[in-house]
Structure formats: C-alpha cells, structure tokens
Amino acid sequence: MGVPVFTEGGGPGYILKPTFGYLIGFIVGAYVIGKLVERIYAKKQHLSLGKTSMIILSGLFFVYLFGVIYLYLIYNLYLGIGKSFYWALFYGCIVCSAGDIVLSIITAFLSVRIVNIMKKTGMSLV
User: Fold this and answer.
1) CA torsion sign, 90 to 91 to 93 to 97?
2) In a domain, 70, yes or no
3) Residue 1 located in a structural domain
4) Are the beta carbons of 96 and 50 closer than 8 angstroms?
5) In total, how many domains does the chain have?
6) Span 26-60, pLDDT tens digits
7) Which of 25, 33, 99, 118 is 20 to 30 A from 57, alpha carbon to alpha carbon?
8) 80, 18 in Cβ contact below 8 A?
C-alpha cells in the first residue's frame, strides 16, 4: 500500500534498532488484551466502555514497558550512548502516551459500538 512501516528496512538487523522493543511489546500487549477479553466472555459479562478502556490501556502498558526498557538497554549496552532511564522513560513513553491514551479510548468506544451492532445483527463474535 506504500505505507512506510519499516522505512529503515527489516530483517535480523532490525532487532538491534532502539525501537524494536515496542514491536515485542505489541505482541505481548495483543496477547494480554486477548486473554482479558477471553476472560470476560468466559464469565458471560458485558463488555462496557470502562472495561474495554482498561483492557486496551493494560495492553498499551506492556507496549511501553517493553519499549522503554529495550530503548534504554540498546542505547546503553549496544550503541554505547549513555542515556539515563529517565531519558528513555521521558522520550519513549511520556512524550507519546497522551496521544496513545486518547486513541485507546476512541478505540474502546468504537469497539463497544461494533460489538453491540454485531450482537444485534446476530453476527458471531468469535
């Protein structure tokens, strides 16, 4: 589609890029979100906006957790550029988190609406 997702290329060398930890975090975050939603449906609970927001934000937590730690480690151990953990936390999380939180809440709102529409039309959620 022409969207520059991996503008610097890919392959095994991408593992040593400072932002690779966020990709690991996306995998872990998706797993956590999936497991939490699975638990809600197993208990036959209603998926409300509040629950959905908290589930999505918990996944986002793991994206930032892995991303910031990896950012700090790659800069300090591989690149040899001394950066403090506060620097990694500030530039790897705090600067970006406000927009991500807003997008997470919008996503929660839309997903609850879509699930409700699917239930009304008799579509399967699984």
Assistant:
1) positive
2) yes
3) no
4) no
5) 1
6) 999 999 999 999 998 888 888 899 999 999 999 99
7) 118
8) no
